[in-house]
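We emphasize that the prediction below concerns an isolated chain of 87 residues; any contacts that depend on oligomerization or on bound cofactors are therefore not represented. The input was used exactly as deposited, without trimming of termini.
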Amino acid sequence: MMNFLKKARKNLTGENRTLKFLRYAVGEIILVVVDILIAPQINNANENNKTEQKELILLMHIAAKPERRSCRCTEEFERKPETDSRK
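Result of the prediction step, given as a token string:
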């Protein structure tokens, strides 16, 4: 793709076709702007997928061993005295 664009630019500037070169330049600018606008959306979608996968794995681990989890929770509850950390 890049070679095609380089050849098109050389042909348009070499033959003094200013109008066609300006059209080419505007097209390039539009492509770059569209790319800049789409890239963050794709990145956000990927990050959301990663987060969902981590949540799913965590939920699967929790569901796999509910008796161990409940024992740990009761042990933690019994060990720590009730204190209000906001005071």
